[in-house]
Automatic annotation (TrEMBL), chain A:
Principal place of residence: membrane
Taxonomic placement: Eukaryota, Metazoa, Spiralia, Lophotrochozoa, Annelida
Alphabetical list of Pfam families matching this protein: COG4_C, COG4_m, COG4_N
Protein name: Conserved oligomeric Golgi complex subunit 4
Known role: Required for normal Golgi function.
GO biological process: Golgi organization; protein transport; retrograde vesicle-mediated transport, Golgi to endoplasmic reticulum
Domain COG4 transport protein middle alpha-helical bundle: 163-473
Subunit relationships: Component of the conserved oligomeric Golgi complex which is composed of eight different subunits and is required for normal Golgi morphology and localization.
Alphabetic keyword roster: Golgi apparatus, Membrane, Protein transport, Transport
Any one annotated GO CC term: Golgi transport complex
The keyword Ribosomal protein appears for this protein: no
Family: Belongs to the COG4 family.
From TrEMBL, chain B:
Compartments where found: Cytoplasmic vesicle, Autophagosome membrane; Golgi apparatus, cis-Golgi network; Golgi apparatus, trans-Golgi network membrane; Lysosome
Function: The small GTPases Rab are key regulators of intracellular membrane trafficking, from the formation of transport vesicles to their fusion with membranes. Rabs cycle between an inactive GDP-bound form and an active GTP-bound form that is able to recruit to membranes different sets of downstream effectors directly responsible for vesicle formation, movement, tethering and fusion. RAB30 is required for maintaining the structural integrity of the Golgi apparatus, possibly by mediating interactions with cytoplasmic scaffolding proteins.
Domain of life: Eukaryota
Cofactor: Mg(2+)
Membrane topology according to the record: Lipid-anchor
Protein name per Swiss-Prot or TrEMBL: Ras-related protein Rab-30
SUPFAM superfamilies assigned: P-loop containing nucleoside triphosphate hydrolases
Source organism of this protein record: Ridgeia piscesae (Tubeworm)
InterPro entries xrefs: P-loop_NTPase, Rab, Small_GTP-bd, Small_GTPase
Gene3D superfamilies associated with the record: P-loop containing nucleotide triphosphate hydrolases (3.40.50.300)
Length: 786, 204
C-alpha cells in the first residue's frame, strides 16, 4: 500500500500538463468509489465475526465429548472382536459335525448298498444293483477307511470287499448280457445294458461295445447297398452315379445312427462323449467307403483312363486319334465331383456334431482349441478324406486335360459367321471354361476349385489369347477400301473373272476385325465369368474358414486379371490397324486442307459458304469409312476406332494448321470447319470428342481474334474456367499464323510487372502481355516487327 | 489397407516333411510350430516386407508334398514369381527327388521365375546326409540360387525371403523402365510387336 502511494506521489510529480492532471484526478475518484464499496462489504460481515467469538467455549466442550466417544468405540470394537472369534470357532465345530454326519450317512449307505446289491443281483435287477454300485463308487473309500475302524475283518472292511466283488460280478454280467442281446438282436436289451455301463464306471467300454454293435449294423446295410449297386443295369437312370449314390446311402445311414443314439449317449454318458463314439463309427465309415471306392475305380476303369490322360497331357507328340477323347471323361468327372461333394457334406456333419457336444462339455478356451485340433486331425487324416483327396487330385488332372483339349478344339474349329461380330471360338471357349470351373465348384473342394481357376487362367492366356495375338499379327490388309474393292470386283466381272485375291483380302479383313471383336468380347466375358463365379462361391462356400475364402478370393482375382491380357491384345490390334489402315486412309483427306486458302476476302468467304472447299468432303469420306466398320465392330471397338481416328485427325490437322496462314476471315472459316467436324464426330459416338479437340479449338479461337489485345481476355488471370492445352510458345506460334495480326505491332511491355489495366491506361493498345515470366525473356521480335 | 507397391507370388515345393510349412511359419509368424501336421492341399499366407523403403507384399503358397496333391499344387507354378524347392539335408531321398521336381518346374513354371534350392534342417548337424557343397554344385548346374536354412533355429529363413523380395522388386523396377522406354518408342512406330504375355508382377 505504502509503496503504491509512494509511487503515486512520485507519479504526481510527473503530472505536468493539465490534461494529465485531470486524468490523474479522474483515476483517483474512481479508486475512491471502489474503496468505499469494499468498505461497505466488510462492514456488513462484522456481525458474523462477533458470532464466531462467542462460539469458542463451545468448541472446548465438543472436543471433550469426542474424546469420550472414541474411548467407547474402541471398547466396543474389542468386544466385537472377541465375540466374532467365538462365532468362528462355533462355525468350525458345526462344519465338523456336518462332515461327521456325512460320514455316518456314508457308512450307513455303504451298509445299505452292500445289502441292496446282493439282493438286487439275486433278483437280477441289474439297474438297481448298478445304482448301488454307482452310489458306492461316488464314496471316497480311503476317507471312510480312515474315519472308522476298517481293520481286517471289521464290518466296514467286509462291506468294501463285498461291494468290490459285486462290482466285478455286475461288470461281467453286463458285458455278457450285452453281448447276448447283440447276438440275438434284442434291441431293447442292448439299450438296457448300454445304459448300465456308465453307472458302474465303464463309460469307455460301454461306448466301444455299443459302437461296435452299431458298426455291425452299418456294415450289414452297406453290404446290401453294394449288392444293389453292383446289380444295377447299365441303362438305369442312376447308373452313371451309382457309386456316389451308394456312398451317400452309407453317409445317410451313419447320420441316422448318430441322430437316433446321440440323445441316449448324452443322457446316460454325459456331454463330451460323442467324439469317442464318432471315432469308432468313422473307422467303419472308412472301411465301407474304401470298399465302395474300390468298386468305383474298378468298374469305371479309373486307373486306365488316368494313365491315358496322363499320356495325352504330357506326350504332346501324340496324335489326336491316340489321345483319349475328352468327352469320354464327362460322366466320370461328374461322378467324382459328386462323390467328393457328398463326402464333404458328411465330414461337415461329423465335425458339427462332435464340436457341438464338446462345446457343452468344455469351458476352458485352451481345451476348446485343443479339442478343435483333435477333431480337425480326425477328419483330415481319416481314410475317407485321404481317398477323396486322391480322387480330387485325379479329377483335377482329368479336368485340366478336358478343358485344354476342348478349348484347343474350339479354337481349331473356329467358324466366322458373317452375321455375327465374333467367331464361334469365343462363345465356345468360354462355355467350356465356365462348365469346367463350375463342375469343380460342385465338388465342394476348395483346393479343387482353386486349381481349376489357375488352369483356366493358363489356358485362356496360352491356348486362347495367344491365338488372337497370332491372328492380329498377320495384320489388316493395308489400303483396303470398300469402294475400291467394289470397283475391282466390277472391273474383274467385266473381264469375266473374279479375282480370288480380292476374296482373300476380304476374308483377311473380316478375320482381322472378328479377332478384334473376339478380344473385346473376351474381356467382357472374363469379367462376367468372374462375377458369376464369385456369386456361386458366395452361395456354395459361405461356410468355409478364412483361409479357404482367402485362397478362393486370390485365385478369382487372378482370373479377373486375365482380362487385362486381352486389353493388351486389343491395344496391339489397334496399333496394327492404325499403321495399316487408318493412317494411309486419313492422310490424303487431311492433307487436302493444305490446298484450301485461308487468307480470303469477303467474297471468298461467302463463296466457301456455298461451295465448301474441304470439310464437307472430309466428313463424307470419314463417314463412308466409318460406315464400312460400324456393322462389323462391337460397340466397344467402334468407339475405340473413333478414338484412334480422332487422335489421328487432331495430330495431323494440328500440323497442317501450323503450315497454313490465316487472315481474320480465314480464321473464321477454320472455326466453322472445326465446328462441323466436331459436331459430326460427336454425333457418331458416345465418346466425348470435344475434349480431344480442345487444342484445335483453342487454335481456332486464337486465329479468330479481331485484335491481339483480345488475347488478354483469355489468357492468364482472365482465362476463367478455360484451361489452356497449348503452351505459351504454341500460342505465339499460332498467333504468328495470322497475317494481319503479325504485321501489326507486337511488343513486350518494358515494365512487365505493371498490371494489365495500367498498361491499357498507358494507352498501348496492342500489347500482348502474357504473364508467365519465362515468356518475357523469350525472343518476341521474331514474331513482332518482322 | 492395400498400401503396397508390388505383389509377388512365392510358391514352396518339395517332398513331404522337409519343413516347408515350418519355414513359412517361421518367416510369417516367427515361431517353430511343435507337431506340425502334413499340409493338406495348399496353404496360403501373406507377408508384407519393406525393400528400400518400398512396401512389397509376398503372397506365399505353401504346397503339400504328398504325392496325391501333386495335380493341385502344379496348378500354382505358372503364376509364381519365385519358386522355392526345399529338401531336407538329413534325408537323402528328399535330395534324390530333386530332378523330378525340377522336371515339373520346367513343365509348368514361367520361364522368368526365380528359383531357389533350399536345404532345410541345417541344425541337424549330426544327421547330415547331404554335404552343402554337393547341393551347391547341383544348384549351380540347374541355374538355381542356393541356401541352407533351419526353420527350427531361425537360420537364414528371413534372409531367404528377403533376398527373393529384393530380387523380384529389382526385376519389377527394370521392367517398368523397360516398358516406359518401349511405349515411348512405340509412338509412330509402324509395326509394334506384342508385349510378352508373362504375368505382370505389379500390385493389382
Ligand atoms: N530339426 C528340424 N526339424 C524341422 C525343421 N523344419 C521342420 N522340421 C520338422 O520336420 C517335420 C515336417 O515339417 P513340415 O513343415 O510339416 O514339412 P512340410 O514340408 O510342410 O510337409 P508337407 O506339408 O507334408 O509337405 C516337422 O516335424 C518339423 O518339426 C528344421 O529346420 N529343423
Ligand atoms: Mg506342409
Amino acid at each position: 500500500m505504502a509503496a503504491t502511494s509512494d509511487s503515486r506521489r512520485s507519479n504526481l510529480q510527473q503530472l505536468t500538463t493539465l490534461e494529465d492532471i485531470q486524468k490523474g484526478l479522474q483515476n483517483l475518484c474512481k479508486e475512491e468509489a471502489r474503496v468505499n464499496e469494499e468498505l461497505v462489504v466488510l462492514l456488513k460481515q462484522q456481525p458474523d465475526m462477533c458470532c464466531l467469538n462467542s462460539m469458542v467455549p463451545n468448541l472446548q466442550m465438543i472436543n471433550n465429548d469426542a474424546a469420550q466417544l472414541a474411548g467407547m468405540i474402541s471398547f466396543t470394537s474389542t468386544l466385537a472382536e472377541n465375540i466374532s472369534s467365538k462365532v468362528r470357532q462355533l462355525d468350525l465345530a458345526k462344519s465338523r459335525v456336518t462332515v461327521c454326519m456325512q460320514r455316518v450317512e456314508d457308512v450307513w449307505d455303504l451298509k445299505y448298498c452292500t445289502d441292496g446289491v446282493q439282493t438286487a443281483l439275486q433278483d437280477e435287477d441289474y439297474e438297481k444293483a448298478a445304482a448301488h454300485i454307482h452310489r458306492f463308487l461316488s464314496l471316497d473309500e480311503n476317507v471312510l477307511r480312515m474315519s472308522a475302524d476298517a481293520s481286517e475283518g471289521s464290518t466296514l472292511d467286509t462291506s468294501f470287499k463285498l461291494l468290490h466283488e459285486a462290482q466285478n460280478k455286475l461288470q461281467m454280467i453286463v458285458h455278457r448280457q450285452f453281448d447276448a442281446a447283440v447276438h440275438c438282436g434284442d434291441v431293447a436289451s442292448v439299450e438296457r445294458f448300454f445304459k448300465i455301463f456308465p453307472l458302474i464306471g465303464q463309460h469307455k467300454e460301454g461306448l466301444a461295445k455299443f459302437s461296435k454293435y452299431l458298426c455291425a449294423q452299418l456294415s450289414d446295410m452297406a453290404d446290401k447297398n453294394m449288392k444293389t449297386a453292383l446289380s444295377t443295369c447299365a441303362g438305369d437312370k442312376r447308373a452313371n452315379v451309382i457309386f456316389a449314390d451308394t456312398l451317400t446311402l452309407l453317409f445317410e445311414g451313419i447320420a441316422r445312427v448318430v441322430e437316433i443314439h446321440q440323445p441316449l449317449v448324452e443322457t446316460y454318458y454325459g456331454p463330451g462323449r460323442m467324439f469317442t463314439m464318432m471315432q469308432h463309427l468313422q473307422k467303419e465309415c472308412d472301411r465301407q467307403s474304401r470298399k465302395i471306392l474300390d468298386h468305383f475305380r474298378n468298374q469305371r476303369n479309373l486307373e486306365m483312363k488316368l494313365q491315358q490322360v496322363e499320356q495325352s497331357l504330357y506326350q504332346r507328340t501324340l496324335s489326336s486319334t491316340e489321345k483319349i477323347e475328352p468327352k469320354e471323361l464327362d460322366p466320370l468327372m461328374a461322378e467324382v465331383t459328386l462323390l467328393n461333394a457328398r463326402a464333404e457334406l458328411y465330414t461337415r456333419f461329423v465335425r458339427r456334431r462332435i464340436m457341438n457336444d464338446l462345446e457343452v462339455a468344455t469351458q476352458n478356451e485352451d481345451a476348446k482349441a485343443a479339442n478343435k485340433e483333435e477333431v480337425d486331425k480326425l477328419i483330415t487324416t481319416c481314410e475317407l478324406s485321404r481317398q477323396m483327396q486322391e480322387l480330387i487330385g485325379n479329377y483335377i488332372m482329368m479336368e485340366e486335360y478336358f478343358m485344354h483339349e476342348m478349348v484347343t478344339k474350339a479354337v481349331s474349329l473356329d467358324l466366322i459367321d458373317e452375321s455375327a461380330l465374333t467367331s464361334s471360338m469365343v462363345d465356345d471357349a468360354f462355355f467350356i471354361v465356365k462348365k469346367c470351373v463350375r463342375r469343380a465348384l460342385s465338388s465342394s473342394s476348395i483346393d479343387g476349385v482353386c486349381a481349376m481357376l489357375n488352369h483356366a487362367c493358363s489356358i485362356l492366356e496360352q491356348d486362347f489369347q495367344e491365338v488372337l495375338y497370332a491372328r492380329l499379327r498377320q495384320g489388316m490388309p493395308s489400303g483396303f477400301d470398300f469402294s475400291q474393292a467394289y470397283n475391282l470386283v466390277q472391273s474383274s466381272l467385266q473381264f469375266g473373272k473374279l479375282q480370288s485375291s480380292d476374296d482373300e483380302t476380304q476374308k483377311q479383313k473380316t478375320a482381322f476385325l472378328t479377332t478384334l471383336n473376339n478380344a473385346d468380347v473376351s474381356c467382357e466375358y472374363i469379367q462376367t465369368l468372374k462375377k458369376s463365379l464369385e456369386d456361386d462361391t458366395a452361395k456354395m462356400y459361405g461356410h468355409v474358414n478364412d483361409q479357404g475364402s482367402a485362397k478362393l478370393q486370390s485365385c478369382l482375382s487372378d482370373l479377373g486379371a486375365v482380362s487385362t491380357r486381352f486389353t493388351d491384345v486389343l491395344e496391339f490390334g489397334f496399333s496394327q490397324f492404325n499403321s495399316g489402315v487408318l493412317k494411309p486412309r486419313l492422310r490424303p483427306w487431311l492433307d487436302a486442307f493444305l490446298s484450301v486458302d485461308h487468307n480470303i476476302t469477303e467474297d471468298d468467304f461467302s463463296n466457301y459458304e456455298a461451295n465448301d472447299p474441304w470439310v464437307q468432303t472430309f466428313i463424307v469420306n470419314i463417314d463412308n469409312f466409318l460406315i464400312t466398320f460400324k456393322s462389323s465392330l462391337t460397340s466397344g471397338n467402334y468407339d475405340s476406332l473413333i478414338r484412334h481416328l480422332s487422335n489421328e485427325i487432331t495430330t495431323r490437322l494440328e500440323k497442317n494448321v501450323m503450315k497454313t496462314t490465316f487472315n481474320r476471315l480465314g480464321g473464321l472459316q477454320f472455326d466453322k470447319e472445326l465446328r462441323s467436324l466436331v459436331g459430326y464426330l460427336t454425333s457418331v459416338t458416345t465418346w466425348t470428342i470435344r475434349d480431344r479437340f480442345a487444342r484445335l479449338t483453342q487454335m481456332a479461337t486464337i486465329l479468330n481474334l479481331e485484335r491481339v489485345s483480345e488475347m488478354l481476355d483469355y489468357w492468364g488471370p482472365n482465362s476463367g474456367p478455360l484451361t489452356w492445352r497449348l503452351t505459351p510458345a504454341e500460342v505465339r506460334q499460332v498467333l504468328s499464323l495470322r497475317l494481319v495480326l503479325s504485321s501489326c505491332c507486337f511488343t513486350v511491355s518494358p515494365c512487365a510487372l505493371i498490371g494489365r489495366r495500367q498498361l491499357l491506361l498507358y494507352g498501348v493498345g496492342l500489347i500482348l502481355f502474357l504473364p508467365a515470366p519465362s515468356l518475357v525473356g523469350d525472343n518476341f521480335s521474331s514474331m513482332g516487327w518482322g | 489397407m492395400e498400401d503396397y507397391k508390388y505383389l509377388f507370388k512365392v510358391v514352396l515345393i518339395g517332398n513331404a516333411g522337409v519343413g516347408k510349412t515350418c519355414l513359412v511359419r517361421r518367416f510369417t509368424q516367427g515361431l517353430f510350430p511343435p507337431g506340425q501336421g502334413a499340409t493338406i492341399g495348399v496353404d496360403f499366407m501373406i507377408s508384407t516386407v519393406e525393400i528400400d523403403g518400398v512396401k512389397v507384399k509376398l503372397q506365399i503358397w505353401d504346397t503339400a508334398g504328398q504325392e496325391r496333391f501333386r495335380s493341385i499344387t502344379q496348378s500354382y507354378y505358372r503364376s509364381a514369381n519365385a519358386l522355392i524347392l526345399v529338401y531336407d539335408i538329413s534325408c537323402q531321398p528328399s535330395f534324390d527327388c530333386l530332378p523330378q521336381w525340377i522336371n515339373e518346374m520346367d513343365m509348368y513354371a514361367s520361364t522368368k521365375v526365380i528359383t531357389y534350392l533350399v536345404g532345410n534342417k541345417s541344425d541337424r548337424v549330426n544327421q547330415r546326409e547331404i554335404p552343402a557343397h554337393i547341393a551347391e554344385r547341383f544348384a549351380q548346374q540347374q541355374d538355381m540360387r542356393f541356401l541352407e536354412t533351419s526353420a527350427k533355429e531361425a537360420d537364414n529363413v528371413k534372409r531367404l525371403f528377403l533376398e527373393i523380395a529384393k530380387e523380384l522388386t529389382q526385376q519389377a523396377r527394370d521392367n517398368e523402365i523397360c516398358s516406359q522406354y518401349s511405349s515411348a518408342s512405340d509412338l509412330g512406330a509402324t509395326d509394334t510387336s506384342p508385349v510378352g504375355n508373362f504375368s505382370c508382377c505389379k500390385g493389382f
